[in-house]
Fold this sequence. Notes:
The structure holds two protein chains of two kinds. Helix content of chain A is 37%, strand content 31%. Chain A is of the alpha/beta class. Chain A has a single domain (11-125), classed as STAS domain (Transcription Regulator spoIIAA, 2-Layer Sandwich). Chain A has a six-stranded mixed β-sheet with strand order 1-2-3-4-5-6, covered by helices on one side. In chain A, helix 1 (38-55) runs parallel beside helix 2 (73-88). Chain B has a single domain (2-173), classed as Histidine kinase-like ATPase, C-terminal domain (Heat Shock Protein 90, 2-Layer Sandwich), CATH 3.30.565. Chain B is built from six helices and five strands; from the N terminus they run αβααββαααββ. A five-stranded antiparallel β-sheet of chain B has the order 1-2-3-5-4, with helices on both faces. The termini of chain B are far apart. Chain A binds chain B through residues 35-37, 39, 70, 72-74, 76-77, 80-81, 83-84, 88, 103-105, 108-109, 112, 115-116, and chain B through 31, 35, 52-53, 56-57, 59-60, 63-64, 67, 70-71, 126-127, 130-131, 133-135, 137, 140, 142-143, 146, 149-151.
Amino acid sequence: MTVATMDLPMVEEEGLQLGPVLGARDRVRFAGTGEAEGAAVLDRFLGLLHRQALSSELRRVTIELEELEFINSSCLKAMVAWIYKVDTEGRPYKIHLRRDASMHWQRTSLATLQRLAPEVVVIEET
Amino acid sequence: MSRGAGSFLGRRVSQIAAARTAVSFSLERSHSLAGKIANWLIDFCQMTIGDTETTSRLHMAAHELVENVLKYGTTPELGLEFELERGDHESFVRIKTRNTAAPEQLEEVTRRVSELRAAVDPIAYYDQLIRSTAGVMGMSGLGLARIRAEAGLDVDCSVEGQEVSITVQATMRSGR
């Protein structure tokens, strides 16, 4: 049986690698490092992800973050804007953030995102 | 605002018998150059302090500071200073940036740092800042609050003429 992959591009720009997980209809993977120039790249990708999630009527989207080494506050802001949109526009789906808890920034920053929208954001451990 | 930093500095010197390293850079306002220097500083901390969590917190602080000066600086140069006093169990670390900025930016950063320093709970302040700017497009304005709330470093600033200096510092765990 073939499982559909999310209809999203593989993006490799400004130190970030963003793309769908092959064979998973509700899962994407982020890797690399997101500095200031990466914020627009991440923002565009999250916009596409949001539209795809709505059009596919997904109830949940998982982002694998274990290979994301660091993002600065501009990239964090892109995630904040997306989560805020989901939270304030009817909560059409939940956002599962899969982290590597051995990375200090993932522990603190993902907890920050969860506090922003506890009904929407779920933290998963590797 | 810098008086608080001074008293903090006096206290830590008496507490830590340390090997001291201090470096200062005046450099071109270039993203790749500033980023490389920030990475070099973090590599240095990893080697000397040897504590992964401390290094990670410093990595966050250094990269947020560098982004700040690159975003808001108005001249081709910027200053970056780094100081480390390494003790057996604790190390004192300070990172300072200097850049010129437009008058409205000087006012804005002074206001933000004053608010941040006055906040009883830095995490609650950070959360509130995130909520209040979540729907606003453009600059994040979260960097300094993130350094305080997530990296756990003290943040201070001073303005002289058109130049702003931002200092972040903390006594942090050493791994060796």
